[in-house]
Amino acid sequence: MSVGQQASIQQSSSTWTEPPWSGWIETTGDALLILEAARRGLIPRVTRRLIDSERRMITSGSVFVFDEDESGIKRWTDGFFWSPSRILGNFLLYRETDKRGAGHRSARADPEPNETADGTRTDAQSLSRPRTDGVGLGVDKQRERNLVGSLTNSYKFKPDGLMKKTFSVTINGVAQHLISYYKIEDVENGRLRSPSSLPELASLDISPEYLDKTHFRNPPKVEIGVDGVPRYRGEADDIDTMAASQRPRVQPSVESDTNHIALTRRPSSDREGIPSHPSQTAVPLQRPSLSLHK
């Protein structure tokens, strides 16, 4: 079923039976492709809070998009127990915890032999697939960072639990959010595809208003074409070292909205809420102007 067909089915149904989109949001570009698809009506946005029966569709791969004005949702709730949030690039990450110790750090005073004092592991054993040789240690650690950030084994995580990865951007004062869920093993085993790997989504031109660098903690690489239109060209980390060293350092502004990622805000434990990003609401999303702004 195409994303367009899926959107029309969900919009005509009074109850959600499946998530708006299923896959893996790896990069800022992936998140922007989903927001762009939702803006065009190819993927339906959530226009109200999910009821209890609809929360059962939240599984590995589920991706939800909502606009605060359109949906009236100021805080996303899903019924799960989560660790405190951790910043990873332009995203916030959460890891599902055992509710008996949800959000609480382990009581043991000393780190385990393969764990450093800050709770990170010196190998990749916290991932679902064990490392088989020493040569792959660097790759394993980078993969671990991409999947779980610093949420390794510092909390009482639920075995085989979900990760929650969230992204937010504010256009003309209206916050738009993407909430995604995945299991580490599903990503590692290739069961979840990213938007950038699907031609029907990868071919979309991301609207210029989404690419303004002031939206991001780590602005992605954007190239201005001969037509004067900015286009996404990769993550900030993809920029070569020389270009990065010559680029002026942008100091992030302090956001007063508690739903935005602010460097001065310390993430707090969240039982089932949206990160410290903005939320959303219901009204057809107007294409915003270039005067933009978690």
UniProtKB/TrEMBL annotation:
Start-end of Basic and acidic residues biased regions: 102-111
Domain of life: Eukaryota
Location of the region described as Disordered in the Swiss-Prot/TrEMBL record: 1-22, 102-137, 244-294
Alphabetized GO MF terms: DNA binding
Bias type Polar residues, positions: 1-17, 117-129
InterPro entries documented for this protein: Gti1/Pac2
One Pfam short name: Gti1_Pac2
UniProt protein name: Gti1/Pac2 family-domain-containing protein
